[in-house]
Amino acid sequence: MIEWILPAAVIGAALVPTRRKNDKRIIQEIFERTNTSIKNGDTVLYPKLVSGGEGRYVYSLPIGLSSDTIKNIELTIREALNKEIEWEFKNGYLHIQVFDDRLPNKWNYTADLKTDTWEVPIGKNHHGVLYHDFEKYPHMLVGGTTRFGKTVFLKILLASLLMNKKEHVSFYILDLKGGLEFNRYKHLHQIKTLASDLLEACRTLDQIAKELKERERLFKEKGISNIVDTKIQKRTFIIVDEAAELSPKLVSKEHKKYAEYCMNCLGQIARIGGALGYRLIYATQYPTREAVPGQVKMNMVARLAFKMPESMGSRVILDETGAEELEAIPGRALYKIEKKREVQVPYINDKTLEGIINGLGTKETGTDRNAIKND
C-alpha cells in the first residue's frame, strides 16, 4: 500500500473554499453552455457585455440572435445565480438586472395605498409598489391555482376602489363559487347585484347588456366616443370570480344556452364596455381555452397570473410561459401589460376589508343619465 503525503500548504489550500464566481461571469457561462449564440463562418458569436456593474448588465446581441432566446434560459440564469432577475430588450440592447434582495413572501394591504384615482395596487416588486390604471387599461384577465391569491386580489380591488372612488364606483359581482366570498358585502349600495350561480349571472349580464345599449345611445346623442374624454366620473366594474362556471363547454346540456348567452354578453362588455365606462375583471382558477373565450381575451391587455400547475395555463392567461415557474408562495404573481413583471400581491383578510368598508360611510351616486347630461 502506497501512502501519499501531501505538504501541509497543499492540504490547507484544499480546505479553503473557492471564491464564488461573480454574476457577470455566471451569466456569460450560461450563454456559452446553453449555446445562446450565432455562428458566423467558423466564429461563434455570443451576447457581448457593453456595460455592467451594481447588478445591471447590458449586452449587444449578434445579428440573427433574437431576444426571445433569452426567455428559454431565464430560469437557468435565475437558478444559477440563486437570485431574482428582470430582463428586457430595449433600444437595441439586452438589459439584465440582478437583485440581491428577494421579494417579500407576504405584505399586508394598508389604507396608505389609497390613490384618489382609478389606480389600484397590483403588487410590490424590487422597484416599489406597482399600480394598475383602469382608465388606461379598462379590463383585466386574472388566473391562478386555488389558494394562491386570485380571490384575495379581487378583494384588494374592491377595497381600493371603495377607498379611492366610493362616490363614483359601482359593482356587478358574479361570485360563481356559490357567493361564498362576496356575499357578506352585498349590502353595500355600490354593489348593484351579486350573482352566485349561472342563472343569476345570466340575468345580471342581460341587465348589463341593456345598460350598454342605453349608454351607447346617450353617448351618440352627445357625440361622445370615450368616457375618459369627458367629465363623467362614474365607472362600473364587473367582477367575475370563477368564470369557468359560465363556459358552455363545461356546463350541463340543459344550461348550455344560458352559458352561451353569458359569454356573448361578456364578449360585448370586453369589446365596447371600456369606452362606455365599464371595466371587466375576468378571473378563473381553470385557465383553459374553454374557460377563457377568445372574444373576451383578445380585448384584455392587462393580465395577472398567479401560480399555475403547468405551462398551458400560463399561456392562456399571459400568452407565454412563466406562471408555472413561480415559487409556491400565496400572492406571488406575474403582472403583464407590455411586458411581464413578477410581483407580490398584497394580502387582505375579510376583517380588514370590513373595517375599511365600515370606515367609509355611505353616499349615493348620481345616475348615468344625469352625469352625461351635465357633461
Defining key terms:
about 375 residues, 10 helices, 4-stranded antiparallel β-sheet, 8-stranded mixed β-sheet, 16 strands, Gyrase A, domain 2, elongated, alpha/beta, Rossmann fold, disordered N terminus
Describe this structure in words.
The protein is elongated, with a radius of gyration of 25 Å. The protein has helices at residues 8-15, 23-33, 69-81, 150-165, 198-222, 256-276, 294-297, 311-318, 350-358, 368-373, and strands at residues 38-40, 43-45, 48-53, 56-60, 84-90, 93-99, 119-125, 128-133, 140-143, 169-175, 191-195, 235-241, 278-284, 302-306, 332-336, 340-344. The protein is an alpha/beta fold and 375 residues long. The strands form 4 sheets. It has an 8-stranded mixed β-sheet, sandwiched between helices. A 4-stranded antiparallel β-sheet has the order 3-4-6-5, with helices on one face. Strand 1 and strand 2 form a beta hairpin. It is built from 10 helices and 16 strands. The protein folds into 2 domains: 8-99, Gyrase A, domain 2 (2-Layer Sandwich), CATH 3.30.1360; 111-373, Rossmann fold (3-Layer(aba) Sandwich). Mean pLDDT is 90; it is low at 1-19 and 363-367.
β-strand number: 16
- Shape, principal axes of CA atoms: elongated
Strand order of the largest sheet: 11-10-12-13-9-14-15-16
Summarize the biggest pleated sheet.
8 strands, mixed
CATH topology annotation of the largest domain: Rossmann fold
Tally of DSSP helical segments: 10
Mean residue pLDDT? 90
CATH class of the largest domain: Alpha Beta
Any guess at the CATH architecture of the largest domain? 3-Layer(aba) Sandwich
**What is the CATH homologous superfamily assignment of the largest domain?**
P-loop containing nucleotide triphosphate hydrolases
Low-confidence stretches: 1-19, 363-367
Number of domains: 2
Series of H and E elements: HHEEEEHEEEEEHEEHEHEHEHEEHH
- Classify the beta-strand content into a percent band: 15-25%
Helix share bin: 25-40%
SS-derived structural category = alpha/beta
Distance between the termini: 100 Å
CA-based gyration radius: 25 Å
